[in-house]
Amino acid sequence: MMDLYQEMWTSKKVTGDNFCQCGSAGKHWQNHIMLSLTAYPCTAKGCANKATVGGHIVSENFPQGYIVPLCDSCNQSDEPIQIKYGALFVSADLSITCQKGSRSKAKTDELPDENMDVQDDEKIEKIADEDDFNKLNDFEKLGVLTGCECEFGCSVENYFKYREKGKKEGFIPVLVDTDDVFFEQLEILLKCESERSISRIKEIVEEYHEKMLAMPVVDGKAYLEKNHIDAKWDEAELEDDEFEAEEQFTKGGYIVKVPVTEPWRIWAYLPYGGWNACPDVSVHMAVSKYWYKQYGAYPAALSFDTIDYAVEKPVEDLEKLANEIGTYCFDIVEQGCETYSALALELKNSRIWNLWWD
Ligand SMILES: [Zn+2]
Ligand SMILES: [Zn+2]
After folding, report:
1. How far is the CA of 160 from the centre of ligand 1 (A)?
2. What is the pTM of this model?
3. Per-residue pLDDT tens for 166-179?
4. Are residues 90 and 161 in the same domain?
5. Is the pLDDT of residue 305 over 60?
6. How many A from CA of 215 to the centre of ligand 2?
7. Do 165 and 88 share a structural domain?
8. For residue 40, which ligand has an atom nearest its CA?
9. 99, 228, 237, 283: least CB-packed within 10 angstroms?
């Protein structure tokens, strides 16, 4: 996802109300992001205008391109543009967005009858090519390795809207920052790191889901009590009036729509951890289950070394929470805020808990 912010884009200067079945490109963006586009600044770097339209931007690496909020003048410009860091991209590929599921006529038209006459070995090569995991882009890889539907972009402000949407549609959204290390971790835990056939990986992934979902979840509260790590508590640190909670996800990325209703089950689809001090998958499941019952917490965002949890309302008993989070993730205390009281201050009034393992 990060590379989208490095990319040099060109505007396709789309206007009008017939971009897709959503209507205009701006409406297409709004339908997916669920926020008003005109509430945003123009996402072109260096531009201070307000956004007025959904701009369709393309590049050599991303020929199908994306829709981002732009002002009229940036949308009509011939200059190459870069997009501001953190801007939300919605794919302009209609087959994975608003027309998803409706088998496109264009696709079948692409296969003229002459295709029936190609040499047999050519055919075989083509199939092998299509089944090659390494040929996929990050978005497609994420879809294969999780077996879930994925979408583009999300921020704290619309994360909770996605969660509401998920309650109706039967998924839990998890924001995922994909990079090579993240994929490596996923592939190792799924035990498919030496497998390159997409169809074979899909089978492995499905078997893994079944196995993990059937596994009994251990008692997360008991785990935290048994493994409790003590750290300094200095009440005075909580009196810092200057401190303002920063409610943000550590990293941005794609949304994985995990088809479960209970948040601890997402770890069956996004296995994580088991390296250095980061607990293994069964512990994430156990602690998540306990935190969901106790605080209504959801694992909300992942990168290769961070997990952000989200609660609808900040937790009141900060001492208890800081002790629990510190035990689960002592690296943020030992190498960060140093005391549980300083950790509690960061959690005060915050709906997002940022965890990180070294
Ligand atoms: Zn659309
Ligand atoms: Zn602009």
Report:
1. 22
2. 0.72
3. 999 999 999 999 88
4. no
5. yes
6. 51
7. no
8. 2
9. 228
Contact between 213 and 265 (Cβ < 8 Å):
yes
- 189 close to 271: Cβ distance less than 8 angstroms: yes
Q: Which domain does 58 fall in, by range?
A: 2-96
256's enclosing H/E stretch is strand 254-258
Q: What are phi and psi of 97, to 5 degrees?
A: -120, -105
* Final residue belonging to a domain, choices 96, 124, 149: 96
Question: Which tens digits make up the pLDDT trace of 260-303?
Answer: 999 999 999 999 999 999 999 999 999 999 999 999 999 999 99
CA of 251 to the centre of ligand 2 (A): 25
CA of 178 to the centre of ligand 2 (A): 28
Same domain assignment for residues 185 and 316: yes
Domains of the chain: total? 2
Which neighbouring-strand residues pair with 56? 67
111 located within any domain = no
> Of the candidates 152, 264, 145, which has an alpha carbon nearest to the alpha carbon of residue 212?
264
Tell how far the Cα of 93 is from the centroid of ligand 2, in angstroms. 23
Note the ligand closest to the C-alpha atom of 83: 2
Which of 68, 96, 124 is where one domain is finished? 96
